[in-house]
Design goal:
The chain has 163 residues and is α+β, with helices and mostly antiparallel strands. 39% of the residues lie in helices and 20% in strands.
Length: 163
């Protein structure tokens, strides 16, 4: 049964709740309010300032769009932070197999642990075999000098398949 969600999430747990919702087998759509900075991380595109693991792991499972900004003046009493409302639509045919999700999530999280390093070096530090990393980069047409923030969500899914 398709499930739709609407909520003003508790900001401290918003990313964890979003992950649970997106992994729910019956998830169809959701509309959530986030703290502005977290919304920027969720919606960031490849190469953008806020692009990271949260961006990749969200965008592999859902189409994300900004519904509206919710400034301090929208609330009484006004909070200390700005907010944004985001809409999520399930990707019906994702670029990965459901059985590979844990592998993809681990790879993405490891990739962004050492954001100042190249992706190749970050994965080597995480314990991936250097020869397999090199082969996966060749298969994904990626330079060994590429940084984690320059790799698209689909490219991460492809890398996970080869590692």
């Amino acid at each position: 049964m398709p499930t739709e969600f609407v909520s003003n999430l508790p900001y401290i747990d918003a990313a964890a709740i979003l992950d649970k919702v997106l992994s729910w087998p019956y998830f169809k759509t959701a509309v959530f309010m986030f703290q502005k900075e977290q919304a920027q991380k969720i919606t960031a595109r490849t190469g953008a300032e806020f692009y990271g693991a949260l961006s990749v792991l969200t965008q592999l499972r859902a189409h994300v769009s900004l519904v509206c900004n919710a400034g301090r003046g929208c609330f009484a009493p006004p909070p200390k932070v700005e907010s944004r409302v985001l809409a999520f639509q399930k990707i019906e045919e994702p670029v990965f197999k459901a059985a590979d999700w844990d592998k993809i999530a681990r790879l993405v999280k490891q990739a962004f642990l050492h954001k100042r390093k190249t992706l190749h070096n970050s994965l080597a530090l995480a314990g991936y075999d250097k020869e397999k990393i090199t082969a996966a980069f060749v298969a994904g047409n990626l330079s060994e000098k590429v940084r984690p923030e320059a790799v698209s969500p689909a490219q991460y899914a492809l890398l996970a398949q080869h590692l």
